[in-house]
Amino acid sequence: MKISDHAATPLEEWRQGVMTKMRISAIGDARQLCIFEQWCDPGLGAPTHLHAVEEVLEVVAGTAEIWVGDEKADIHRDQSVVIPAGTLHGFKNTGTDVLHVRATLAAPIFEASYEARDEISRRWVPG
């Protein structure tokens, strides 16, 4: 059994105003899950993108506008959304405080392809 020490996991700046902490992934011997948290400054979040696998996005603190396909909704603390594999989606902080979200992907690594041409596809693999 491998115990993950989340307190020792560093924060990474994935984009300006968006800090990320990987909690569970291939680095912790996960074979089918990647769980990470993000802290997003007001007005910021994740631009429209997709993953090849299903995702659950949960708001831990704050308020987020989330879009999945053609649908949009505001979600708040203790609410979550299931995002089907291959579906364009994104979110942004619509509050005045830092937004804290937790994401769970059905894969041990993070991979995303972005709708905007100026965004480079992102792949997070343990170093």
Describe this structure in words.
By secondary structure, this protein is mostly beta strands. It has one domain: Jelly Rolls. The chain is built from no helices and 12 strands. The strands form 2 sheets. It has a 6-stranded antiparallel beta sheet, with no helix packed on it. A hairpin with a 2-residue loop joins strand 6 (63-68) and strand 7. The model has no long low-confidence stretch (mean pLDDT 88).
Topology:
Layout: E1 12-15, E2 18-24, E3 34-40, E4 45-50, E5 55-61, E6 63-68, E7 71-76, E8 79-83, E9 89-93, E10 99-105, E11 110-114, E12 122-124
Antiparallel strand pairs: 1-2, 2-3, 3-10, 4-9, 4-11, 5-8, 5-10, 6-7, 6-9, 11-12
Supply the number of structural domains.
1
The gross shape turns out to be: globular
Rg: 14 Å
Structure classification? mainly beta
Query: Main beta sheet: strand number and arrangement?
Result: 6 strands, antiparallel
Give the proportion of residues in helices.
Answer: under 10%
Enumerate the strands of the largest sheet in spatial order, edge to edge or round the barrel. 1-2-3-10-5-8
User: Per DSSP, what share of the residues sits in E-state strands of 2 or more residues?
Assistant: over 45%
Order of helices and strands: EEEEEEEEEEEE
CATH topology: Jelly Rolls
